[in-house]
Amino acid sequence: MVTMIVAALVEARRLNIAREHGLLDQPKTTVPMSVWWLVPQYVISGVSDVFTIVGLQELFYDQMPEEMRSIGAAAYLSVLGVGSFLSSAVISIVQVISTRCGDAWLGDNLNRAHLDYYYWVLAGLNALGLCVYVGIEVAERFAFYGMSENLITYLTNVLHQSTATAAKNVNIWTGVSTLLPLLGGFVVDTYLGQFKTILFGSLVYVVGISMLVISVSVIPLRYRYVTFFFNLYIVAVGEGGHKPCVQTFGTNQFDKDNSEDEKAKSSLFNWCYFGICGGAAAAIFIVIYIQDNVGYWAVAFGIPVVAMVLALVLFLLGRRLYRRQVPSGNPLTRVAQVFAAACRKRCLTVSLYGHGECCEEGRVGDGKGVPRGRTLTHSNLFTFLDKETFIDDLDASSTSINNWRLCSVKQLEEGKLLIRLIPVWLSCLMYAIVFAQIDTFFTKQGNTVVTTIGSHFRIPPALLQVFIGIVIVIFVPIYNRILVPVARNITGLPSGITTLQRIGIGIFFSTVTMIVAALVEARRLSVAREHGLLDQPKTIVPMSGLWLLPQYIVIGVSDVFTIVGLQELFYDQMPEEMRSMGAAVYLSVIGVGSLLSSAVISIVQLISTSCGDEWLGDNLNRAHLDYYYWVLAGLNTLALCVYVGVAKCFVYKKIEDVSST
Length: 661
Known about the structure:
Layout: H1 2-20, H2 39-62, H3 69-100, H4 115-134, H5 136-148, H6 151-157, H7 163-192, H8 194-217, H9 221-251, H10 259-266, H11 268-294, H12 297-317, H13 331-344, H14 350-355, E1 357-358, E2 374-376, E3 390-391, H15 393-397, H16 409-427, H17 429-435, H18 441-446, E4 449-450, E5 452-453, E6 457-458, H19 466-491, H20 499-530, E7 541-544, H21 549-572, H22 579-610, H23 625-649, E8 655-657
Parallel strand pairs: 4-7
Antiparallel strand pairs: 1-3, 2-8, 5-6
Keywords: Membrane, Transmembrane, Transmembrane helix
GO molecular function, one term: transmembrane transporter activity
Transmembrane segments: 38-61, 73-97, 117-136, 170-192, 198-221, 268-290, 296-317, 417-438, 458-479, 500-520, 552-571, 583-607, 627-646
């Protein structure tokens, strides 16, 4: 795919030079352009062969029956053979369509033809194949980020909201869309299961985006405000059903008793986030470019519809192959029973508490007495809750088990797991507030600086966010293949470092992000002051947009540590029956952080305005966004200190095998 993109760009340059030298109608005259321009496409194609051709050989040899190994080699070659025939068919189709449109792309005169367009078509088809290979998560993230990353621009430029109001609306919507997965996770674990919830959530998702397209294209502007936000929150509902299930559904496809599957599962969160960021980067690059340069918001919102439909189709293609877990009942009821039983037995005497019989799993509930093969080890934390597992005289005399008064040890430990995770959840909220700045003030910063390449091509400010995805796409393999093995040799841990250490490193980098952003903003204000632009907010400040790249790069590195770490922590440390809820709880950190970001904006606006110096005004040249970033950096530093204390006290859950009785 990259080969085709490079070839298209080189061919576009060749045509441009031919045009400049008046050679369009002289196909036999050599264009004054060095042949070395063609080398990159050959080099990249060679690199591609090393991976794909060799990989195909190995796959078709290794996975064929032993008696058919020779046929396996032939099957690999048949890929190239059939591909050659299909290439001829594609050439014929392109020729017919382009000739009918009066502009033959593959004519004999290459100076008049458009071989570059043909290469772009191949790149697009290859990208489509890549999306099919990577799967539903990439397409879904493409749809989500295609809408969200430039949302603040739509609110300020089309709906004419103030910068602060638009930022708060973006944060609130992001918060709601990442809090609704809590409800979705509950529905998954209690009623529908993961497969059905993904299916229904995806359908609502598609309906919401489709209605969003209608609202920005057909609905008159005076009525658009209500319909736009209504449809935006329908998308959030679809996100709530889709998001808590996808990754946990993926992990359920691994066999927990297979060591090879366990090793593969340990890298799942890294590569899943790799796919998420790949889809996000593609969305930012394609959709946002259309929004800012073409101006058709309906088309820009329509592309995510196609992506989401593709995601749904991909998901349904594998429906016969999936491992599906049935809903295990309301997990919140079991948790509520833990605390209710603890309250009822709070006055249990020490002597009885010390000599009572402990209630094991299987004696509570249905009375079948069939314990699971894997159970939680009893911990010495929160011992005040332990009383609820001991059978007192009232429990012994009762003819039936009262689940709200007597809990099993396993049920008790599940409640303790949730209590342990609460301080971690709280200490990560400040990170989420920093994370919320990407979609709001980072984008508004980019609107005020020079983001053009050459004299004509302008990079939309929101497109700078693609560098976050690029950093993650580059850094995840480095982390997974280089840093983890090195750390593993030092620590002896399979993951190299603990999940909590990983999250803490990411929080540190998020603080660095705010410091860098504050310094860059201070420089931007200085340049605006030097050129007398303080009262000209719509005039571009003569400062390169490249100055903004460091803050995007550092936050990208931060994401690899903290976001992936939170996913892994809340999946691994939740009770097994609440795994989907665990994914939703991780998202709720981002959601509550986004809502708190809106609150912080309001507080900063109120205080700074009362002091006569509005930090977050519509005129960013008179505002003090740098002061705001310094405040966030300070708060995040304090949050990091709190997090370190919480992490030191955290105890990971322990699993033990017990034999069936």
